[in-house]
Specification:
Helices cover about 5% and strands about 45% of the residues. The model has no long low-confidence stretch (mean pLDDT about 85). By secondary structure, the chain is mainly β.
């Protein structure tokens, strides 16, 4: 479903943030005027990392790295590894073992 071997970085302005389960969903308008659905952790995971719901909001300019759907027509980014937010705020996913990626 997602291309876990090819990270994608998007930059743009947040349209909205839904702080709900099963995932926090960020609506992001990129510089090429495409709207993406960004799927982040769930509320409990962010609470454990002490990330308050006020951290990201509509109008914030962010850079987000994760993995896009294999179908480029579906504008969804998930399996996030990093978010660079306003005022120098940064979130990084805790280290994970590398994905098994082979050329093919």
């Amino acid at each position: 479903m997602f291309d876990s071997c090819k990270p994608t970085t998007l930059e743009g302005e947040i349209n909205s943030v839904e702080w709900a389960n099963p995932h926090i969903v960020i609506s992001l308008r990129t510089q090429d005027v495409a709207d993406y659905r960004i799927e982040w952790y769930n509320l409990i995971q962010l609470e454990r990392e002490r990330i308050p719901t006020e951290t990201l909001k509509a109008g914030d300019h962010v850079t987000i790295t994760g993995h896009a759907m294999r179908d480029p027509n579906i504008k969804v980014l998930s399996l996030l590894s990093e978010i660079q937010g306003p005022d120098g705020w940064t979130w990084q996913r805790p280290r994970q073992p590398p994905a098994s990626c082979t050329a093919g």
